[in-house]
Amino acid sequence: MRSRLYPVFKYTVIALWACFVAGPFLWAMTTSFKNANAVQGGPTYIPWVQYKPTLTGWHNIFGGAGGIDVVQPFVNSAVITIAASAISLALGSLAAYALSRYRFKLGFIKNSDIVFFFVSQRIMPPVVLVIPFFYLLQWGGLLDSIPGLVIVTVALLLPIAVWVMVDFFNGIPGRSTRWRCWTAAPRSRPSCGRSCRTPCPG
C-alpha cells in the first residue's frame, strides 16, 4: 500500500511545484495579449472567455507608433558583455600567470595575499563605487556611453577573472614546454566560461 501511494504523492508534489513555477510565466504571457483596460480591470486568465486577446502590446513594442525599442538595448548588452569579457580575460590572464608562476614578496605580503586582495574586491558592495565611477566617467566624458559601461564592467569583473585563472594556471605543471601549452589550452574553457558568465545579466 505504501509503495502505491508514494508515486501518487511524488507526482502530485511535482505537479503542484510545476504550477507554482510556471504560474508567473503564464500570467506574464496572458497579460501580454491584453489591452490596457483589460490589464487594469483585474486578474483574468482565460482568453476569449474572460478577455479578448489582442496583439496591440506586441505591435507597440516591435515598431508601433510610440513603441519601445527593445532591439538596441539587447545589442548594447551583447557588445558590452563581449568586450568586457575579452578585456577582463586578457588582463586577468596576465596577472594570474604572474601570480601563479612567480613569487612576489613585499614585507609580509605574498602571492596568496595578493590573490585574496583581488577576491576581497567582490566583498565590497558595488553601490559603494557608484559615486566614484560617476565622477570618473563624467571627467572622462564617458557618461551614458558603451565605452563607459565597458570600463565599469571590466573593473567589477577583473577580480573574478584573476581568481579563476590563477586556479587554472596552478593546475598546469610549471615546467610545461611550449607544445604542452596547446594540450592545456582546451582545459581553460571552463575557467573562461565562468569568467564570461558574470557580466551577462548586466
UniProtKB/TrEMBL annotation:
It is a multi-pass membrane protein. The chain crosses the membrane at residues 12-30, 78-102, 114-137, 149-170. One of its GO terms (cellular component) is plasma membrane. Keywords: Cell membrane, Membrane, Transmembrane, Transmembrane helix, Transport. This is ABC transmembrane type-1 domain-containing protein. Gene3D superfamilies: MetI-like. Its main location: membrane. It comes from Streptomyces avermitilis. Coiled coil: none annotated.
